[in-house]
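User: Second chain of the day. Same drill as before.
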Amino acid sequence: MALELDAIHTRLVKAQGQIGAVDRMIAAGDSPERILVQINAAKAALHKVAQMVTEDAVSSYMRTEEEKAEAKVILERFSSLL
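Assistant: Same format as last time:
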């Protein structure tokens, strides 16, 4: 599995936009609830990037497609706990 650079780039750009929105919302005195929604969205985007990079790293050690598929399932289960 090759690292999906375009997908990772897209998620990072999205996270940057969300972080910028947080900064603007704080400066504008927006509600804490709305600010926290944007913070959580940025965290989710970064978490997904970390998951994608981890999946790629682990799959590079797997020899067969079956091993890669099993590793992906395990990583998805554990990443939902973070």
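Helices lie at 5-28, 32-59, 65-79.

User: Great, on to the next one.
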